[in-house]
């Protein structure tokens, strides 16, 4: 009986995308971003991104793992870096809706900047808040800097001072590169002076 229960639990774990994460793939190695604190690979800066190779690897990854939200974000990068925003945005949106922090951060950023339409600060704030509630550094930084600047005052974001303060502490722990530590130091200073 115990062995049957164990096999049933393993089957549920492997079949439920909310519980299981796809292993590292070529898509991660060729198309992830260095600032993505949830990705299993080191990441590739914009100037080093090999668009044809990254696009092909992410297409393969999505074929193998169609419910993996991080692959939608990484695939979207291959279009965004070719200035094909109409093609990139649906993939960023799928990644954000799938709960991937980097996808939520980037989707919020493209909404904020107005790629593909009018800028939408409130919708951007919603996605940044979702990403900031995960262990994702830059959604915390973008959300909190803009929240302190009053950009979301009329958006009805469900963010308290206490939660925001905890996010600042989380951001400090997530900063592992010099650039990230510098960005978090600036956030910490802004928070102290608010």
Question: Can you characterise this structure?
Answer:
It is globular, with a radius of gyration of 18 Å. The chain is built from ten helices and no strands. It has helices at 2-15, 26-31, 51-64, 69-80, 85-97, 101-113, 121-132, 137-148, 161-174, 178-193. The chain is an all-alpha fold and 194 residues long. Helix 5 (85-97) crosses helix 6 (101-113) and helix 9 packs antiparallel against helix 10.
Mind sketching the topology for me?
Elements: H1 2-15, H2 26-31, H3 51-64, H4 69-80, H5 85-97, H6 101-113, H7 121-132, H8 137-148, H9 161-174, H10 178-193
Helix pairs in contact: 3-4, 4-5, 4-6, 5-6, 6-7, 7-8, 8-9, 8-10, 9-10
Keywords:
globular; Serine Threonine Protein Phosphatase 5, Tetratricopeptide repeat; mainly alpha; single chain; disordered N terminus
From the spread of the alpha carbons, the general shape counts as globular
| CATH uppermost class | Mainly Alpha
Number of strands: 0
What is the averaged pLDDT score? 87
Report the structural category: mainly alpha
Instruction: Work out the helicity level.
Output: 55-70%
Summarize the main sheet. Answer: none
Task: Give the domain tally.
Answer: 1
Q: What are the low-pLDDT stretches, counting only 5+ consecutive residues below 50?
A: 1-19
Count of helices?
10
**Distance from first to last alpha carbon:** 59 Å
Evaluate the radius of gyration: 18 Å
Reported by name, the CATH topology is Serine Threonine Protein Phosphatase 5, Tetratricopeptide repeat
Assign the CATH architecture: Alpha Horseshoe
The CATH H-level superfamily is Tetratricopeptide repeat domain
Q: Approximately what portion of the residues adopt beta-strand conformation?
A: under 5%
Order of helices and strands: HHHHHHHHHH
